[in-house]
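cron nightly-structures :: item 1 of 1
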Amino acid sequence: MTLQILEVAVIASLLAYIIYLHLQLSKKNVFIETTVKKLSGIEKSRSMEEMVEFLTNINKAGLFHRFTPDKFLEESTTDFILENDDKLKIYMHYTRDEADAQNILKVGFRFANSFYKTALPVTRDKLDMVIKHNSQKYHGHFLIIISISRETVKHFTAEIKKTGIKNVSFENLLTESTPLRNENGEPVYLLPLQYIKGYINHMTGEITKNPDFDPAYISPAFQKNLTELK
């Protein structure tokens, strides 16, 4: 008799758990359907602030990950990232270990072949910033901020166009050392440390600044690199 009661209790518990899972799945399906409709343009009347709040709610919903604190949209963080953005080209790169972030401040930013594989351009479009952050933040808690003078970018982009060089972008010229080849045969460039503004722990909001930051830095090696590519 006792065994039968136990069996009934176990079956009842399993049924209750199945019903619970079904309800949770239904809630998520409704949320996903609503999200798709909103992103497809059905609710085009939303303001930028409402869209940022909407994305934050997606993050809190925990559909794809467990929610953790994030200081990315705090004023101190965005002010540091976007400072003088009218005069600078700004990019962000995520890394997992603080030791790597500190090393980038000391020696510069290494990138293979294309700068844009791991460095994301930043604008004052908060929705764009949030989307990029949410897509990349799992690569690490430390956000490297790279800032280069718009005048420098404009100058070397024009020089490349003038010489007719193909498959080269301005950042490929901004290196003081000869590019090496990685295991895939791709050239690895080293962007000077002067272009590294600092890094942010986007979990705590702590900012570490680079004392040698100089976004207008120009090295004689840059023009030499251009000459050698002609």
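cron nightly-structures :: done
Residues 2 and 101 are 63 Å apart (CA to CA).
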